Amino acid sequence: MATWHSEILITTSPLQVRPNSWNGQAGATLDFWGVVRALEDGHEISGIEYEAHEAMAKHQMELIAEAGRERFALETVLLHHRIGFVAAGEASLFLRVASAHRGAAFEASAWVVAELKKKVPIWKKPIFVRGQDPTAAS
Hints:
The protein is α+β, with helices and mostly antiparallel strands.
């Protein structure tokens, strides 16, 4: 029987993952990095300011990890989200899933990210480069 491992993290520090920290018993391990784009709706940004209701966000992330475990027979879910200012080109999200088969890992990864965006109280505010804010008065 596979062992279950989950790790939920909300941090203001840059996201990092230990090398070789994957589950060696799983047949598939998939990492996803969500990186802040330099453009938001066609306008240049310096980064994104993320805010969260931390206790509720962590709770929802734990529920999503557990639901992913059950739905996709996952052996591992590492779900890390950065809050505070995250510059363009830096990661705001890290997700690792491990399962017996690659199909389940790919499906689970997409599902976890979609659920996170729907259910986790983390809000983002793009920080536009001077003169690029489409909501600013002319």
